[in-house]
Amino acid sequence: MLLILEYFSFQFIETPKKIFNIFKNLIWFGVNFLSIKYCFQTLFQPWRRIVWDYKRGFDLGNRIDILVSNTFSRFLGLIMRLCIIIAFVIYEVFIILLGTFLILFRILIPFLAILGIFISFSLI
Amino acid sequence: MFDLKKSKINKSLSIRFFVYFFKFLKGLSLFLFIASILLLAQTLSFDKMDYQMIFFFNIFFLSCFMLFSNIASFFTYFTRKTRKIDTSLENEELNLADFLSIESALRIKKALKFARRKKVSINSSILLYFILNFKNKKIDFILMRLLINKKELLPIIKERMLSTKDIDNSTNVEYTLDLIILEAAKACIRRKGQNIKVGDILSALSKIEPSLKEELRKRNLKKEDLDNVNFWQETLMKKIDDNKIWWSKDNLSKLGSLAKDWASGFTPTLDKYSIDLSKVVQRVGFMQIIGHEEERSQVERILIRDSENNILLVGENGVGRSSVVRAIAQRSFLNKSLPAINGKRFVELNLSQILTQTSSIDEVENILDVCFREASYAGNIILILSDFDNYINDKVGAGLVDISSLIVPYLKFDEFKFIALTSFSGLHKYIEYKPQVLSLFEKVEIKETTKDETILIMEREIPFIEYKYNVFITYSAILKIIELSEKYIHDNPFPKKAVTLLTDTAVYVNSVTKGKIVLASHIEDIISEKTDIPVGKISSDEREVLLNLENLIHQRIINQVEAVNEISASLRRARSGMKTKNGPMGTFLFLGPTGVGKTETAKALAEVYFGSESKMIRFDMSEFQTNEDIKRFIGDDNSPGLLATNVRENPFSLVLFDEIEKSHPNILNLLLQILDEGYMTDSLQRKIDFSNTIIIATSNAGYQIILDAIKENKATDLIKQEIFDYVFDKGIFRPELINRFDSSVIFKALTKDNLLQIADLRIKKLQHNLAKKQIALNVSAKAKMEIVELSYNPQFGAREIKRVLQEKVENVLAKAFLAEEIQEGDSVLINENFEIIIEKRNYEE
Questions:
Q1: A47 in a domain, yes or no?
Q2: From the candidates A4, A117, A118, which should be mutated to test the interface with B, based on the most B CB atoms within 10 A?
């Protein structure tokens, strides 16, 4: 009796929990490896801190030049970070789907195996 | 309490069969499934019939494989599921068997079964036999490191296993199985383990089982050593197991991260002249961080401050300053440090590269300015500079430059985080003279690692060293490294000196001895080679010298029995390991009139004990009386001084301070420390070790008291007291100096009999020299008496003998030689009038 209870615990609690923890780590890895938190925090920041300072005195042309350049630097930063964020979303979706599938598959293995045996006999 | 039958692990043991059974079925069904797939492929290619049957096999075997795989996994999980050990073992109702690993339980079960069959109660020998008598990599690791041969040990255990009584002689307590397992549980807790493994049981048995105890004793190992090796192998195994779990956060962190520096500035110039430690950490691999926890945490706390966040790491070369920085870089890379530090780049500026690639100081300053600007602007750089003192002094020379005026404005800038590494001597000699620089730093002192930490560091390095040099390093070699490097190497601190010695020995064993195993004796060889000190077990020659030291010295020294006895006893104590105090091997103050053999005794000792008179470092202290002389003796900013230089070069030698009462009082003050602690610090802040020297100081002070006392036939103790009263009264020596000598020895004035013996010794020496020219020299007894009469003067001791012999014998012989009166093969007799009687050699005969 104890053995059966242990089996149920193993099959439906412990093993799915273990797989869940592995995928939890893989999800965390995506966040960490692609520095997602940091990407959001610095989404509109200039690319590699490349900015130009405004010169003293008023020179409209120069001001516009610098404004455009600095905006472009921020835009470049935004594009690069968005690329990373998109890659992150794709990765995470893939990991979540794979994880869900593996957990379900692992839980259903005994049923699938018994079903397989029945099906195989039906073929004879 | 220990009851295997009532434990859960016992159930696991009983169903272990199912694990193997279902694993077999799993393998079989997989094999049949693959075979059925191949059959299907063949059927398709040959366009044959009966697909249905083949599909049946395909699906059936695949389903069986899934099912058996699932069941086998369950049984494996069930048998491995053990209760984790609790730190409190106080509860008597606790069944210790529940904490056993499956392997330990199996071994104990077999041992119990054997004892039952033999109708004896289980004892430590039976248990040890069943632990050793099966293949286990962990046990093999422990025994091999301790150089214990399992094959030799097993028959010994087998012989005594039915008769062993496990009684502790000191407490008369009998070690039952409960107590043995309790000891094993404690060993498990000490290594912070979860289950009692076979290594833990072996560790417990090392305190109880007689054969194992004997094996350890034969190898000079303690019980704790087996415990430590067990801890070592468990740490290694855990590291290997952890590395296999690729999905763990720790392992995934090692891949680093992208995009973190996208909001930080480019640093092209800095990158050209620096090493990115964060990249080095990733490339070289992540090391286990050992020691310096406090210092590391202090540095991290300073780095996260908004201001005053520059650090001056001060410590001796080799103490682990770079390791502290590297450890923080590693923690930052793995996001294990403080949030404000995580992800930062630790960049070590290579200033020597800048200096070699530039032609002028202006150019150096320009490059540095750009580097510093980039570092502060980037926002994610922590800049490191080693040997900071080299770049902060006014001295001009190769590899030296003063960047203090350049760096000060940056150090004040909060975004500029800077870690400078320096030594204590560099700090005192250069940086402290630049208060404007020093005030911008927070000082963190790096202490020497402890002996235990150094052992762990060596254990961490050993796999790489063994792989590189194709050797195997024993645990006794590790212990020997700690013992000898602590005692004999003072140039570097722990851990550097230990790791260097370990590497040197591995190279030596691999290339010189062509061996494979690094033993404790190899460490002794290397230390002896490095220091010129004959370390290790007292060799038979040395043992003989020590036992006969008095006789050997007396071959050169007449009389002075007390002095010779005292010196001999002291040396025997030092070399046989009886000595408890720090300090030199022996320290003696020889008091007595001139010419009584004080210096000669020192020379004789150097020759007999250290192998040669050249092993005596002699200082005529009358040469060191002024302040200028002190600098020459002790050293100044430019040179380490005569004393430090000589002792550093010859650490295993006799140091003689002749006529010490004539030296400057400051020298006597220095001597106080040397006599007490056995070391001095030279002007270059190096520790000079005197623990392998014999120090002898001679003095004529109060000699008149000795001469008078001899006439009155006073006892030695009384003479000594009178002399001490005299020297203290006159302020020649302070009591604390006299007290620090192991012994103050009175050299008595020589009697006529003594002089006769000395004359004999000198004449023998002359005879020996003439014998080389085949000339036999004889001096009549009356002539010898005449020499004694002519040279006897209590104030000058034996010095007159030399003069009289030169005048009366050597001069006469020299003239006769020049006049060709004496020729090879002649016999010469000197009579009481110091005339030469030559007996010519008869060639015809």
A1: yes
A2: A117
